[in-house]
Amino acid sequence: MSDSAAVIAETERFSAPNYSPLPVVVSRGEGVWVWDVEGRRYLDCISAYSSLNHGHRHPRIVAALVEQAGRLTLTSRAVHNDQLGVYLKELCALAGFEMALPMNTGAEAVETAIKLARKWGYRQKGVAQDSAEIVVCRNNFHGRTTTIVGFSSEAQYREDFGPFTPGFKLIDFGDLEALREGLTPN
User: Fold this and answer.
1) Cβ contacts of 49 within 8 Å, gap of 6 or more
2) CATH classification number, 4-71, choose in 1.10.472.80, 3.90.1150.10, 1.10.10.10, 3.40.50.300
3) Please, where are the H alpha helices in the chain?
4) Residue 55 class from Cβ within 10 Å (0-12 exposed, 13-18 middle, 19+ buried)?
5) What is the pLDDT of residues 80-131, one digit of tens each?
6) How far apart are CA 84 and CA 122, in angstroms?
7) What is the number of other CB atoms lying within 10 angstroms of the CB of residue 33?
8) Structure pTM?
9) What is the per-residue pLDDT across 9-18, written as a single tens digit (0 to 9) for each?
10) Within a 13 Å sphere around the CA of 171, how many CA atoms are in the beta-carbon half?
């Protein structure tokens, strides 16, 4: 389809309404630019919420994707593959970490960070079981999983999805006094 209105109508007809996207139908990209189906060019300031900071169709990235897809498309973590260790070694050296745990999405990374913080609290700090607390700031957005929307301050993300995971204290960003009050032994 080369008509934005037709593409949008078809998408809205068959897609669950969980987003309110801009009325732009992007069909191709190059570097920092994208073009819609009518040929208008836009500076891609959204960049897939920062996961596209290298731009569109970077030649080295495209070549690496094609090469890997020609050898092996995907493996689960139930088996080893010959690229994961190489990738993790380079990532850890670049980031200055001893270990890394790759995730598929930002929401999955946030959920894992919550589990890690709680487990550390219980096993290392001695927090009583099922009483860990995590301080979060209002007006956050970390994804759409049930736990994450549970500590959102946006009604539209919470409505009709409860009950939510307990243990989160919501404060205003930059409110030092609220942070002091929110930090407890738990």
Assistant:
1) 106
2) 3.90.1150.10
3) 4-14, 59-71, 84-95, 106-120, 146-150, 155-158, 176-182
4) middle
5) 999 999 999 999 999 999 999 999 889 999 999 999 999 999 999 999 999 9
6) 30
7) 13
8) 0.79
9) 999 999 998 7
10) 16
